[in-house]
Write a structure and sequence with these properties.
Elements (H helix, E strand, L loop, with lengths): L2 E9 L2 H12 L4 E8 L5 H8 L3 E5 L4 H4 L2 H5 L2 E9 L13 E7 L6 H21 L4 H42 L5 H18 L2 H14 L3 H8 L5 H11 L4 H8 L3 H14 L8 H7 L2
Parallel strand pairs: 1-2, 1-3, 3-4, 4-5
Helix pairs in contact: 5-6, 6-7, 6-8, 11-12
């Protein structure tokens, strides 16, 4: 049976509220009891009466809600997830008495990212209830963040690359069929091949991965690219894999290449990073914020 959770949503835009509700309905691990308020003034009193497992803020401006005296003067044990707008800096959604997570609203159409974020928060809540110690939620967030996010990132990026690999196999199969069909079917097959090329070479896959990666490793890629402008997209991708503690064997399985190729690329990458021979690339990348 799916676990039962209660969620309080503060939202003053019906379109955004509908999007959030649709995403919540896609999470099969839980059944939700959901309450929504459209006025920030009703948020605190409703949370006190309902005691929800999660509060989601998606007001046009979340910061004034966080700055409200109720949130600043009273400790809020319920985690709060803020959907931040383009004009709203994520780092400003902060309160010393609240446990706050952020998610850029501009990525809400990629539902998987928001689902992973919500499921991770509930996983941390479960850790809190198991330990039963004061402040354990924040401690669990710090301790489990790297492990859980690395596992989810690994799963996500493997899915991306496996999709590309399957498409390449389909393209190879089409090349065998191509000489043995009539002109009309050949044109259709060529259309399919061109579509596969577009998807396989689509930089959006890398862009999506970067968005997800940067949620758990803020500013890593930006800092790395500024320090080492000669790094290619492939180099940056390898750096992400290394940052995720993936071994040569993991990268080999992920990219479908041999370990010699991985070692060669790591060697060239180390030179681009201008590291000394005795310097460890893993240790170096861990120092990059």
């Amino acid at each position: 049976m799916p676990e039962k959770k209660s969620i309080l949503i503060g939202c003053d835009d019906t379109t955004i509220l509908t999007q959030v509700l649709n995403i919540l309905s896609a999470i099969a691990d839980f059944t939700f009891s959901i309450a929504a308020v459209s006025r920030a003034s009703d948020l605190y009193s409703t949370s006190q009466s309902l005691h929800p497992d999660l509060i989601i803020l998606c007001f046009r401006r979340n910061q004034p809600v966080i700055n409200d005296s109720h949130f600043n003067l009273n400790k809020i044990d319920t985690p709060i997830l803020c959907l931040t707008q383009n004009y709203e800096c994520e780092s400003t959604c902060w309160s010393k008495n609240c446990i706050i997570f952020t998610h850029p609203y501009k990525h809400i159409n990629n539902a998987d990212f928001l689902i992973y974020r919500i499921k991770s928060i509930f996983q941390l809540k479960k850790t809190e209830s198991n330990t039963g110690t004061a402040g354990s939620f924040a401690e669990a967030a710090r301790e489990k963040n790297n492990t859980s996010n690395t596992r989810e990132l690994s799963h996500y990026v493997m899915e991306l690359d496996q999709k590309v690999e399957i498409l390449q196999k389909v393209k190879t199969r089409i090349s065998y069929l191509y000489p043995n069909v009539n002109d009309a079917i050949r044109r259709e097959l060529m259309s399919i091949v061109n579509s596969i090329k577009t998807v396989a070479e689509d930089t959006k896959l890398w862009d999506d991965f970067k968005i997800y990666f940067e949620q758990s490793n803020p500013d890593f890629l930006l800092t790395l690219a500024k320090k080492h402008p000669s790094l290619s997209a492939k180099d940056l991708k390898y750096c992400c894999y290394i940052k995720m503690n993936m071994t040569n064997h993991d990268i080999t399985n992920l990219l479908g290449i041999n370990q010699d190729s991985v070692r060669t690329h790591k060697y060239r990458l180390k030179k681009k990073l201008t590291l000394e021979k005795e310097q460890d690339i893993i240790s170096y990348l861990r120092t990059v914020s």
